[in-house]
Design brief:
There is one protein chain. It contains ten helices and ten strands. By secondary structure, the protein is α+β, with helices and mostly antiparallel strands. The N and C termini lie far apart (about 50 Å).
């Protein structure tokens, strides 16, 4: 198992960080994950441990109290955490996207105010684009901000906030027509607001309500919520970057690195499914020998391992491309698409290897089988990824006739 999903060219610091995270996953996450997941219980003790390790500030620059590490280091840590329990990686991911957006697009005052406390894990981040009738069409956002003196008044309903309840800072994308004449392209009249709130459910600040957790098939433990704004007043200095109309581009930049994260999660879950499958295949006997000695099972294991390797390689390539400062939407889209699809297939094959026992809640593979589908839709469906990939390929391979 140790031979799968290795990453060449890591520094001593990167290897030390990954070794620490891997030990934490093996000792603190895997033994308790299934029990917490079945109870849909927030993993507070695990989160406190991640805070002590400094993982909430992994990519936040050192000048703000973070570790200043690369996207690759972060993605490899997420891969390890998702191997233990994908829900924990979701708690980290939304926080990371907001911190990344602040680092890349925030004003100096916003960075000074938020990033040190985010690095320490004292402020937890969430971000919000989706709405109940939105799907993948971000341009159809109806939530709106209207300027009123030195403040904006926000109204609307948002959907599918990971960390919606436990977070204390939410980056919210809404429509803001102020300064943008009628007929302006929808993506040029959107603004990201930095909304501070109290953790919890109900009315968490005047005009802002988090109704409660959405009950999900999998991806439990982490809270997924709605967000309702009804006359929510936000100071103008909490517009991300200080200028309206840039929200769409800011969010897409965050989602781009988020897609690398989802690819890493797919790699981690697939690795765990392979581990469970190959172990069970050597323990379970039929017809007088371990089922791992049957050719049909060996073929399945070979296919699973190859998919784990391929997905990991594409994820690493996408992260390194972003770290180099180059555009990586093509690589991120490919990595997210392949890793999520392969994750589903590897988990299903491990489920098949377990036979009837895979259907029992006593076996870990049952949890993975319910978790994998979320990766097919998180940070954009497979169809959206293929649209991104196709358009970028046509840009790169434009035929000059």
């Amino acid at each position: 198992m140790a031979r799968l999903a290795q990453t060449a060219g890591l520094t001593d610091v990167q290897q030390e960080i990954l070794s620490t995270v891997r030990d934490f996953v093996d000792k603190e996450i895997i033994p308790v994950a299934t029990g917490l997941e079945h109870r849909d219980e927030y993993p507070q003790q695990i989160v406190d441990g991640l805070k002590e390790l400094g993982l909430f500030g992994l990519m936040i620059p050192e000048e703000y109290g973070g570790l200043g590490e690369s996207l690759l280091t972060y993605a490899l840590c997420v891969e390890e955490i998702a191997r233990g329990w994908m829900s924990v990686s979701g708690i980290i991911n939304t926080h990371f996207i907001v911190a990344y957006m602040l680092k890349q697009h925030g004003t100096q005052e916003q960075k000074d105010h938020f990033l040190p406390r985010m690095a320490a894990g004292d402020i937890r981040g969430a971000f919000s684009m989706s709405e109940p009738g939105l799907g993948s069409d971000v341009s159809a956002i109806t939530s709106k901000a209207v300027k009123d003196g030195d403040e904006y008044v926000l109204n609307g309903q948002k959907m599918w906030l990971t960390n919606g309840g436990t977070s204390s800072l939410v980056a919210v994308l809404v429509r803001s027509d102020e300064g943008h004449p009628e007929g302006t392209a929808p993506h040029k009249s959107m603004t990201t607001f930095l909304v501070e709130k109290e953790p919890g459910f109900g009315e968490v600040r005047p005009g802002l309500t988090i109704p409660g957790k959405i009950d999900k098939m999998g991806y439990k433990g982490v809270d997924t919520t709605e967000l309702i704004m009804d006359g929510l007043r936000i100071p103008a200095d909490r517009v991300l970057g200080g200028v309206t109309g840039r929200g769409f581009y800011q969010m897409m930049d965050g989602v781009e690195v988020g897609r690398v994260n989802v690819a890493a999660r797919g790699c981690g879950v697939a690795q765990r499914a392979f581990e469970l499958g190959v172990r069970y295949a050597q323990q379970r006997h039929t017809f007088g020998k371990p089922i791992a000695q049957h050719q049909a099972i060996q073929f399945k294991l070979a296919e699973m391992a190859t998919k784990v390797e391929a997905a990991h390689a594409m994820m690493v390539n996408a992260a390194r491309k972003k770290d180099s400062g180059e555009r990586n939407d093509l690589e991120a889209g490919m990595a997210k698409y392949l890793a999520s699809e392969y994750c589903k297939e590897v988990v299903e094959d491990a489920f098949r290897i377990h036979g009837g026992y895979g259907f029992s809640k006593e076996y870990e593979i049952e949890r993975l089988y319910r978790e994998a589908p979320m990766l097919l839709i998180g940070e954009g469906t497979a169809e959206i990824q293929k649209m991104i990939i196709g358009r970028r390929l046509l840009e790169e391979y434009r035929f000059q006739g």
